[in-house]
Amino acid sequence: MKKIAVFTSGGDAPGMNACIRAVVRTAIFHGLEVYGITYGYDGMISGNIKRMHSHSVSNIIQRGGTILKSARSEEFRTKEGREKAYQQLKSLGIDGIVAIGGDGTFTGAKVFYEEYGIPTIGCPGTIDNDIYGTDYTIGFDTAVNTALEAIDKIRDTAAAHDRIFFIEVMGRDSGYIAVECGIGGGAEFVMVPETETDLKKVVKSLKNLRKSKSSSIIVVAEGDEEGNADLIMEKVKVKINDEDKEFKVTTLGHIQRGGNPTARDRVLASRCGMAAVEGLLNGEANCMAGVVNGDVAYTSFADCIGKTKPLKGDHLRLIEILSI
Ligand code: F6P
Hints:
Layout: E1 3-8, H1 16-29, E2 33-37, H2 40-46, E3 49-52, H3 79-92, E4 96-101, H4 103-116, E5 120-124, H5 140-161, E6 163-169, H6 176-184, E7 189-191, H7 199-212, E8 216-221, H8 229-240, E9 246-251, H9 263-281, E10 287-292, E11 295-300, H10 301-306, H11 315-322
Parallel strand pairs: 1-2, 1-4, 4-5, 5-10, 6-8, 6-9, 7-8
Antiparallel strand pairs: 2-3, 10-11
Helix pairs in contact: 1-9, 2-3, 5-6, 6-11, 7-8
The structure holds 6-O-phosphono-beta-D-fructofuranose.
6-O-phosphono-beta-D-fructofuranose binds at residues 11, 102, 126-128, 170-172, 222, 257.
Subunit structure: Homotetramer.
Family: Belongs to the phosphofructokinase type A (PFKA) family. ATP-dependent PFK group I subfamily. Prokaryotic clade 'B1' sub-subfamily.
Active site: 128
């Protein structure tokens, strides 16, 4: 292996830059040429590919976003698109790829590897923490801390006005952000896509809680099957039917995707980036470099995509017990 390429794809996540930096510097350390592909798979198709040097990744470890930009490519889903991408890589002599992203990124990488055989290793970059084969994904810790800071602030005003707040956090298919910022933020309830939300129980508990608490925080993952925070708030409000009680909704949205990565995210990103390059050099391919039980581990793309990562067993129980 002589020349590798690195790209970021899908939703950006804080720590992606730290991962790019680790890939570039590990590659140079081992005597490889390294290329950066801008705009993910779209850039691979259009040939938006440039040589990177050690100084190309200076002063980025602390920055959110991704210097290589990101995109969700429709064209790469087609055979013709992937053929164009292959020709671009072939013309530069790229013989190894590091793909930083989530399950959509790995789905594309797996198909591409199976069609053209360029060894590819993924790094788990998504705030959602919904990738099997790694304890945490790059960006998750930062996103949770951003949401937590917002919850703390909302709690102040909720308490001052005796209000019930529904706070919507990201997570289309995963409740990890909701659960962790819910525990950290002392939420009364957390609603997640992994478990059925029992609105009757929520209404009953909120009525009971009113005897001991004047305000409440309910964290809703955007993918909850009962709907978004606005819809859920309306449903609960109608059932509580108390004109003296005020209900408010805050949707945190993309604020959760930005900001300086936490120390945990920078370290995780650096470890995964180094492991991806060294994995390629050691003959690994068609897999993701993650961290499992504290140690670097390679998990096949098939498992990363096909297997679901359940919420930690005690997390939802913890919220129920600690909210009384
Ligand atoms: O996958 C990361 C994520 O932030 C999800 O939590 C969210 O549902 C989605 O991306 C939002 O995507 P976009 O930025 O394209 O609206």
